[in-house]
Amino acid sequence: QLQLVESGGGLVQPGGSLRLSCTASGFTLDYDAIGWFRQAPGKGREGVSCIRRSGGFTNYADSVKGRFTISRDFAKNTVYLQMNSLKPEDTGVYYCAASSRSLSFNLCLREGEYSYWGQGTQVTVSS
């Protein structure tokens, strides 16, 4: 079984930065794609970014392109989401998820493609 733990959330002013971490434990060979998703109050969960272990490609939602960067550290079984130039609309609970499948570029932002989920970390962007 694969477990995911997110960290790094918090309160930040508009224009500020945060770095989220997603650390995998357990059967860590059982995933290929890691995705970051977020859920704003009263809204559904949306894909923010994803990264493939095989092939190494990344994908981003249009709303975060140029501001967020996803990266990975294989040795630490950790995926990071660096979030810069944060806006109030970035507020929400951020979840990381893992899929054992080699997801395509388009599918890796779809929450239905992921089997393993973390508990989430709150990000609040407010002055």
3D architecture notes:
It is a single chain. The protein has 127 residues and is mostly beta strands. It has strands at 2-7, 10-12, 18-26, 33-39, 45-52, 58-60, 68-73, 78-83, 92-99, 116-117, 121-125. The strands form two sheets. Strands 2, 4, 5, 6, 9, 10 and 11 form a seven-stranded mixed sheet that branches. The chain is globular, with a radius of gyration of 13 Å.
Largest sheet: 7 strands, mixed
Structural class: mainly beta
Number of helices: 0
Order of helices and strands: EEEEEEEEEEE
Terminal-residue CA separation: 40 Å
Radius of gyration, taken over Cα atoms and rounded to an integer in Å: 13 Å
The oligomeric state of the chains shown is: single chain
Shape category: globular
Helical content class = under 10%
Q: How many strands?
A: 11
Mean pLDDT: 93
Flag low-confidence runs.
none
The fraction of residues assigned to DSSP E strands is over 45%
